[in-house]
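Exercise 3.2. Students should predict the tertiary structure of the chain below and write it as structure tokens, then compare their answer with the key that follows.

Predict this chain's 3D structure.
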Amino acid sequence: MAVPSNHCAALQSPSYLNFTLSITSSPRFILLGILISYLPQHHRIISRRSSEGISPYFVLLGTTSGTCAFANILLLGTSRADIACCREISGFECFAGLLGILQVGVQWSCFTVILLLFLLFFPRATPLAPPKSPTSTPSYKTALLVTFLCVAHAFITILLSAIFLSRFPTRLQSWAYALGILATLLASIQYLPQLYTTWRLQHVGSLSIPMMCIQTPGSFVWAGSLAARLGLEGWSSWGTFLVTGCLQGCLLVMGIWFEIRNRRQRKEASDGHATGDDGQEDTAAPSSNEETPLLGNGR
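Answer key:
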């Protein structure tokens, strides 16, 4: 067996900081943790059979940001060197060394599932439940356009990356930096349309609070893990998750506040309707309106 290079030898002895942040003593935990963090969001959309409350522009920016972030970390010189080292080190050491790449890749895949569920369960107008306002409610055409743009963006990113890799290898690092900067910019504004949508609706809809509770602190842990492995050279990778964690935290606080307030208001309304002025119980059935989910699922 060939003697590992200095870079590959470093992978055989990872730093304690990266070891602690990435929990490399059990690498499956990181990937499993990412999957678990997205499951509440997937389950909420499927169980409600509606993606109501999720901004299409949040999905667009999140998917394209994830695509840029995944391409960025794959094309960084450090990552390509780590991948090349897999021919010189053991399988476990290779897996631990590529944990940051796998981490970003799994996160991108999970967000892509949100894109598919968003389109599949997008609420459509029917004769019995017409849209409240064509100007305030995104149409199904908007959902289709968002999906098309995400697919087109991924295809163009792959094509340009292949061109740089084969024709302009000396400029590949600059292209990776450009992807990282674009991912950070998209992530920086990703939550703005969702913050606006949630504020306008005054409820979270199909947006999952448990997902945000897991991901908000997780974003800072993942950013620290990538920073420990990639150093300052990889700022364009870990900076994305640092910005995302801050904005997602703002959305989480807003969502929790609306949920607590709305539950209190529903409880007060229920107590008021249960006992009328004559002390008799109000047995009137709850009414339905144009915001009632089409298949009868509540929030």
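Discussion points: Confidence is low (pLDDT under 50) at residues 23-27, 280-299. The chain is about 70% helix and 0% strand.
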